[in-house]
Amino acid sequence: MTAKPAAARATVYGYPRQGRNRELKKAVEGYWKGRVTAAALRETAAGLRRSQWQQLVDAGIDEVPTGAFSYYDHVLDTSVMVGAVPARHRAAVEADALDGYFAMARGTQDVAPLEMTKWFDTNYHYLVPELGPDTVFTADSTRQVAELQEALALGHTPRPVLVGPLTYLLLAKPAPGVTAGFEPLTLLDRLLPVYADVLADLRAAGAEWVQLDEPALVQDRTPAELNAAARAYRELGAATDRPKLLVASYFDRLGEALKVLADAPVEGLALDFTGSAAANLDDLAAVGGLPGRRLVAGVVDGRNIWIDDHQKSLATLGTLLGLAGRVDVAASCSLLHVPLDATAERDIDPQIRRWLSFARQKATEIATLARGLSRGTPAIAAELAANRADLASRAGSALTRDPAVRARTAAITDADGRRSQPYAERSAAQRAHLGLPVLPTTTIGSFPQTDELRVARADLRAGRIDAAGYEERIRDEIREVVSFQEKTGLDVLVHGEPERNDMVQYFAEQLTGYVATQHGWVQSYGTRYVRPPVLAGDISRPGPMTVRWTTYAQAQTSRPVKGMLTGPVTMLAWSFVRDDQPLGDTARQVALALRDEVHDLEAAGTAVIQVDEPALRETLPLRAAGHAAYLAWATESFRLTTGGVRPDTQIHTHMCYAEFGDIVRAIDDLDADVISLEAARSHMQVAGELAENGYPREAGPGVWDIHSPRVPSTDEAAALLRKGLDAIPAERLWVNPDCGLKTRGWPETRASMENLVAAAREVRAELTGDKG
Asked: Which of 90, 137, 300, 664 has its CA 20 to 30 Å from the CA of residue 20?
């Protein structure tokens, strides 16, 4: 007689960390400012963990994650767990573990932080491990064990979640000063015993299962890297003093790595079955499945906010039942990437809110699917009927299809995405028009969002001031920002963006087809949270969005003021994008709306227009097979945004916190005149990458890391600038910070910008003798 399959468990890999009212952000920033004690910060964190686990259990989740909570970043937590603290931070960590932890994340005035970059193709940023041939790993499982014991004491069934050893090493970089050619993966044999010690500690503390996350294996991997994965899990699997191991991957299909993990002596795999990762189903069948072992099936999309299609998910789960010893149900990845609770969005049309599923709703969806898988669809008949009705409501909504927008998009021609002259001719016209010095100085766009601005917004919402009073405060701020830049000596100015809440949300609120949230906060890095808008329908621009404030700023100065827009790819990447049509189609709609704004800015006399695309690299598919198709529509949408402007109108773009080397050709295909990029933490790495690929245009690799509270000295900025000149000719090099200044305070901004301009003047004088 065939044994009855075990009842499916519902589980998740991680959960939003911040709390309903961003309590973690407030506590951490209060600690940095000395207003919150370390004990109070730890108690806030413990309370948030208790609340998270209880929310999950109340939703029907059977097995809760531990170790996924973090004060700043889970990869940084892993570096602490394995003792990979850079030499420059060791004294701080030994003096005070918490202060040393934050010093690695943010730096101090005397010590630079770890480099920061994007977590695969998401907008979450992680702290890059720094390793070298002399790195000595030591196990420190204190935090992981403590959180496990917290959950056990509360009566939960916990599963610790750790970044796996392969992914940790594949995300790492050689430490500064390490001889070129060093590969962190060569440290695998040194790292595995440390992981074995952590696993033993967790088993001793009561862990039945431990999850090891290996998302790096969904990328294209060499035979040597796949062999390293096989060796790692043979060794960890062979350990006797360990819990059961669940190896997880997400964000794409595992491909050739799936057989490696299926053959490994581990008790279970957790796989993504959404989007392009749906191919994991056929791949799993091709390798013979996981007979007698556990499969955690990620069928609910953990990265987007649309309700699950329960019938589709149940069909996938039903197929998977024949491929594993037991099948449990989960989201495709950690729910860290979505907001907390859709029911908090009282200002959204109730019909649209029916289509939305945030972390709490996804937990309920997972539990519903697990119940349906275990007991059959009659057990969830009411939920299935409601789900079908909500899906039909969205599909039939007039919001999703605007005939005028679709007709305009269908009429796009190749000529719409081209400038009237090649770059070489345009650059001469722009130099004559703008009259800038060698090594021109500028900043990226935003200036500090002061308490006064936040109070003004709150006063406007509460009715304490009217629109006229609010706008007068915006004018005051713009005048102050322009005056500061003139006095400091910047060559190309910005208006500071005091009227903008976020570089995507600001535009989304003025375009049709977007829905804004009030409480949809998602962690970007550390204590930086954003509210991605929801791209729900066809996109158009009812009227100008930036022209008024840009022209007001220009009236305050004779120097050029940049018009500032967010590009179409970033508008998609930093929104929750619709999943009912190809991304390229949506990008073209956004591009046409932005094109209208570009032409209005130019008509109003704006000579420099910056269209930011920080997400261009971030959104690159994880597998090389998808790169060409993505880059084709991504670069086309940028050119569509900027095409048709006069030759003497200078088009800038900006990118930050990503690995740019493999998209330099695509950056060239944007046909922008000037690009500014993050470069300070990576020590001008991108300047060399541009040079190696023959990038022919002007570039501003940043000389000030704005994601750290450090004020770079004039000498430090000048040294970086000289390093940039080793790769980029002076006539094509700009001087600017890494990114916008919204997150910085005015004292550090004043000092840093003055040092930046002084550095430019110093190096300019070395080149030309011009001390002005």
From this structure: 300
393, 527 Cβ separation under 8 angstroms = no
Q: pLDDT tens for residues 567-599? A: 999 999 999 999 999 999 999 999 999 999 999
The Cα–Cα gap between 687 and 680 comes to 11
How far is the C-alpha of 107 from the C-alpha of 105, rounded, in Å? 6
Return the pLDDT at 764: 96
Using CA atoms, how far apart are residues 25 and 30, in angstroms rounded to an integer?
Answer: 8
- The kind and range of the H/E element at 2 are none
Helices (H) and strands (E) in the chain, counts: 28, 20
Catalytic site includes residue 519: no
Q: Are strands 290-300 and 324-331 parallel, antiparallel or unpaired?
A: parallel
| Prediction pTM value | 0.90
* Residues in the chain, total: 772
d(CA 738, CA 741): 9
What are 670-725's pLDDT values in tens digits? 999 999 998 887 788 888 889 988 999 999 999 998 888 889 999 999 999 999 99
- Residue 69 to residues 23, 49, 52, 114, 469, Cα–Cα distance (Å): 13, 7, 10, 20, 42
Which of 310, 495, 654, 707 is labelled catalytic?
707
Contact (Cβ atoms closer than 8 angstroms) between residue 338 and residue 356 = no
Q: Is the dihedral of CA 89, 337, 185, 708 positive or negative?
A: negative
Q: What is the DSSP letter of 157?
A: -
Alpha carbon distance 137, 35 (integer Å): 35
Who's near 722: CB < 8 A, 6+ residues apart?
763
Handedness of CA 705, 711, 716, 722 (dihedral sign): positive
The span from the CA of 507 to the CA of 429, in Å, is 31
Half-sphere exposure of 316 (CA within 13 A, CB side): 29
Read off the amino acid at residue 229. A
For residue 452, the one-letter residue type is E
Residue type at 450 in one-letter notation: T
- Give the closest residue to 687 by CA, choosing from 618, 759, 736: 736
623 contact partners, CB below 8 Å, separation of at least 6: 218, 219, 220, 252, 253, 255, 276
Question: Left (φ > 0), alpha (ψ -120 to 50) or beta: where does 550 sit?
Answer: alpha
